[in-house]
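Much of our argument rests on the idea that a fold can be written as discrete symbols. Part of our work consisted of pairing the sequence of a single chain with a tokenised description of its backbone. The amino acid sequence and the backbone structure tokens for this protein are reproduced below.
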Amino acid sequence: MIPQTDLSWQEESWQSALKNLVTDANELCALLQLDPQQLDLSPEAATQFQLKVPRSFVARMEIGNASDPLLRQVLNVKDELLQVPGFVSDPLEEHESNPLPGLIHKYKNRALLTVSGACAIHCRYCFRRHFDYEANNPGSDGWLPVLRYIQENPEINEIIFSGGDPLNAPDRVLKKLTEQLKNIPSLKRLRVHTRFPLVIPQRITDDCIDWLSLFSNTVVVLHINHAQEIDKHVAEAISRLKSAGLILLNQAVLLKGVNDSLKDQQDLHQSCFDLGIQPYYLHMLDPVKGSAHFDVDKDVALNLYEEMRGSLSGYMLPKLVRETPGDIAKTPL
């Protein structure tokens, strides 16, 4: 059952949807007919990392279910305030690979641009929830040093748009930056990591597809954690991306209480594949401060993955990986 107050989102532009986010836990509870006392809410956690969720995403949550897997991903709870050894503000030590504002260069042949510091949704397990986006904002004229760095390091042949969420930026800005990158001979591929097609599917406009198609090889990496995140509006957005000839991959994070069962994983990867999205990575949780309650024990994860191997076709099976600071690539488990 979808809350009636949420139906208006279907008629909004993506810009309007961004201005009409749910940012208050009490409103979210009211929409889902939940008693806030049931949920162990923490206003302090929301102060540290704001609650932010599009109404289109709320519309896919189950009314009255305090354990809804989509709700758990966005709700600010007291467990976020626990001080857990090993869970830190910069779990991937990205400050060591941040030579210029807006540029992260961790792996030899690819560089990541923090195109926008904002997201349409705040996932409580986000490994960049403490990232200093203000210091990493090049501004509209600040990309020239980054472009020069890429030109001076021709081993970089792939650029990753990330953030935040890169699709939070206007299409005119993204098109200009993509055109500038396309003029660098060493660059062969563009990769875009985004949640927007899931959380605000209206974001996939003609203008968006226009700049995404500037590179002959553009990979869009989606971040779908649960099959319940996919509805007909999301499927339509995915279809538009697929019809434009873009390569679609999905990476998920293994999260306790969200998708840590065999059925959850089967439904997720089968649903993605049926939409034309290739399952890519299943990440172990990055140990970011405030997210320890989502952590799945390594042995539990390996047992689950073994069950997945026995019940999913090989082409639907993502790689189970962990990111280790300073390593040359993701580490398979």
Summary: The beta strands are 103-107, 110-116, 158-163, 189-194, 218-222, 247-253, 278-283, 319-322, 331-332. Residues 1-7 have pLDDT under 50 and may be disordered. The first helix runs from residue 14 to 19. The chain has twelve helices and nine strands.
